[in-house]
Automatic annotation (TrEMBL):
It comes from Heyndrickxia ginsengihumi. Keywords: NAD, Oxidoreductase. This is Inositol 2-dehydrogenase/D-chiro-inositol 3-dehydrogenase. Residues 3-125 form the Gfo/Idh/MocA-like oxidoreductase N-terminal domain. One of its GO terms (biological process) is inositol catabolic process. The keyword Oxidoreductase applies. It catalyses: 1D-chiro-inositol + NAD(+) = scyllo-inosine + NADH + H(+); myo-inositol + NAD(+) = scyllo-inosose + NADH + H(+). The gene is iolG. Residues 137-324 form the Gfo/Idh/MocA-like oxidoreductase C-terminal domain. It holds the Pfam family GFO_IDH_MocA. Pathway: Polyol metabolism; myo-inositol degradation into acetyl-CoA; acetyl-CoA from myo-inositol: step 1/7. Homotetramer. It comes from the Bacteria.
Length: 342
């Protein structure tokens, strides 16, 4: 069976996913696209020579019976509306992060999915499919480093555009660490406090950059997470978990080593699209395969989207208060407790 996919939002990542589904991955085809910028949606059909219809909006795209599943790759604030419409029509939905921009909105999605009675939603936390993080998780689960005690990580972008605001360091950037870290160590977050080091002169006046988040988990693991989005030198994702008996570290991206002009060097990446390209491929292929073969997605759930949103809300509060703020999660609904997950 070929899964027929409709894409809502044909901007940067929407196009990336369209390209991989139509040119690289197996088992799916793009049959529909839409974007508030209709010109852009039409261009994408031409650019990738898709056998797809450009619809005027998400509502008509989702309602079309030729569409089995939708990819929501629009701006964060538009996600909730499209995801709820997809659930209403019983369509599978892969939603890029964030699932919704507030914890309340994520809860509305969770309730809609539970009421529908079947899992339909996967959230685009692609790091869970990255080989390096997967190996770290295996090592931690096998207790190779004993109990994790501390985590040090960094999320650095070369630069950001003028629309990037201080809270986006959380909702757009740190959100990836928020998802991956609790998954890696099988723990829940307890509290967060934010520190602002000396500001780089390369950031706009209104943007606090860099920022340091000190997060504690329920079992007492101390996490220091640096977000530095005008670091200039490269796209750099670091993660190191220090345990009772050893350390696991995220591998560097492989690169050839060049000896030249009395120097020894390796190249660093500069763009997020390249850093997680394999993870995106595996993630979307897993979505296609699991809904086609098992009748439901098996990647990150709406509940994972909710955990991220609750934590992000508190991180933004901590950015503003400067105080240590408590992170309180509700009880995980039974619906999500025994799901088969990748
Ligand atoms: N997983 C990742 O690593 C990753 C990377 C980049 C972006 N993202 C997420 O993907 C989403 C899109 O990011 P982007 O970088 O592609 O942004 P973008 O601005 O390049 O593209 C978003 C597109 O959505 C369209 N759009 C907005 N509202 C819409 C609506 N209601 N209906 C249809 N189209 C709509 C816009 O016109 C735009 O073309 C964001 O939520 C972002 O956080 C995830
Ligand atoms: O939307 C992007 C994307 O999620 C990248 O992975 C992240 O590094 C950027 O900081 C963020 O702005």
């Amino acid at each position: 069976m070929t899964l027929k996919i409709g894409v809502i939002g044909t901007g940067a990542i929407g196009r990336e996913h369209i390209k991989r589904i139509s040119k690289k991955l197996a088992g799916a085809e793009i049959v529909a696209v839409t974007d508030v910028n209709q010109q852009l949606a039409k261009q994408v059909v031409e650019q990738f020579q898709l056998n797809a219809i450009a619809y005027p909006d998400d509502k008509t795209l989702i309602a079309n019976e030729n569409v089995d599943a939708v990819l929501v790759t629009s701006w964060g604030p538009a996600h909730k509306g499209s995801v709820l419409k997809a659930i209403e029509h019983g369509k599978y939905v892969f939603c890029e992060k964030p699932l919704a921009t507030t914890a309340e909105d994520c809860m509305e999605i969770i309730n809609a999915e539970i009421n529908y009675g079947k899992r339909l939603v996967q959230v685009g936390f692609m790091r869970r499919y990255d080989k390096g993080y997967v190996q770290m998780k295996e090592a931690i689960d096998q207790k190779i480093i004993g109990e994790p005690l501390m985590i040090r990580c960094a999320h650095r972008n070369v630069s950001v555009d003028e629309n990037y605001t201080t809270d986006m360091a959380v909702v757009d950037t740190l959100i990836h660490e928020i998802d991956i870290l609790h998954w890696l160590v099988n723990d829940d977050y307890q509290s967060v406090q934010v520190f602002y080091p000396k500001k780089t002169r390369n950031a706009l006046e209104t943007l606090r950059d860099p920022q340091i988040f000190l997060i504690e988990t329920r079992s007492g693991i101390a996490i220091t997470a640096e977000v530095f989005v005008n670091c200039k030198y490269g796209y750099d994702i670091q993660c190191e978990i220090i345990g009772e008996e050893g350390i696991v570290k995220l591998p560097e991206v492989p690169s050839i080593v060049v000896r030249k002009d009395a120097q020894l060097g390796v190249n660093l990446l500069t763009d997020w699209k390249d850093r997680f390209v394999d993870a995106y491929d595996i993630e979307i292929q897993d979505f296609i395969d699991s809904v086609s073969e098992k009748g439901e997605p098996q990647g990150p759930t709406s509940w994972d989207g909710y955990i991220a949103a609750v934590t992000a809300d508190v991180c933004v509060k901590a950015q503003q208060s400067g105080q240590k703020e408590e992170i309180i999660l509700g009880e995980k609904p039974d619906f999500y407790k025994n799901l088969q997950q990748a």
